[in-house]
Amino acid sequence: MKTLKITLLFCLISTLVFSNVSIKEKDALLAICSSTDGDNWTVSWNINTPVSTWNGVVVEKDKVVALDLSFNNLVGTLPIEIGDLVNLRTLNLFRNKLSGTIPNSIGNLKQLKELNIAFNSLEGKLPNSIGNLQALERLELFMNKLEGEIPSTIGSLENLEKIEMFNNDFHGTIPSEIGLLTNLKEISLSSNRLSGKIPASIKNLVLLEKLSLFDNSLFGAVPSNLGDLVNLEELILSDNLFYGTIPNELANLTKLKILMLNNNDLKGDFAALAKSIPTMLQFEYVNLNETKNSALVDTD
After folding, report:
1. Under the phi-then-psi rule, with left for phi > 0, alpha for psi from -120 to 50, and beta for the rest, what region is 172?
2. Domain annotation covers residue 7
3. CA–CA separation, 58 vs 55, rounded Å?
4. CB-CB contact of 87 with 66 (8 Å)
5. Maximum distance among all Cα pairs of the chain, rounded to whole angstroms
6. How far is CA 172 from CA 135, 194, 287, in A?
7. For the segment 4-39, what is each residue's pLDDT rounded down to a tens digit?
């Protein structure tokens, strides 16, 4: 019996220490290492040890389920083999020096819940295959050089709660399909080159808490149906080309804390609007035709 227990214990230890992922997943990790100058990472991998011991790699049941190489001095491009890590739930490459494009194979990661490749130097278009990531809850691509239109396939990400794609070079209109993402709580598309109107479908996003679209070329009237987004806490529309009268429906946003409308061509009784929302902390409304640099409504 004692011998049996020792044998079982040895088997358990062997499984924990020597268990390994598939050759395909290991090769994908090695491809990432090779294409991003792995020898000079802040924390590099000892590829002679089990994959489960590699920095930032999480293995469960011999499958790579998370990869976190944020702040790790990755320099280079993302290889197409990244799409072979089909069991990933988290991919975090935040704050590195990645360049080149996001490979179309990213769409293979259908179990992915969090994708963060923000604060790099990625360029090119966001591939249409992004719509395949239907388990995705957080999409963070801000502070890159991504361009082109936001693909309409983004409307397939029905579990998405957060989109952060600010400080890129996206142009064209905000796709109306964004209104299909009814679990969204945060949209940050500021500091791009987006144009056109805010899509009417925005009214469907009733869970939305933050809508940040400043520093684009969006135009038209501020939609009255923004008043339907009763959970909004931040509405930031500054530095666009909006015109007309501020809709009275914004007074329905009783949770609103920050409303910024600076540098548009809007009219209305701004002070009255601010005072009608008891939660308001900051309300900025200086228009393009005014000479003041800033304005803050005192809601006390």
Report:
1. left
2. no
3. 9
4. no
5. 88
6. 26, 5, 24
7. 343 334 333 433 444 589 999 999 999 999 999 999
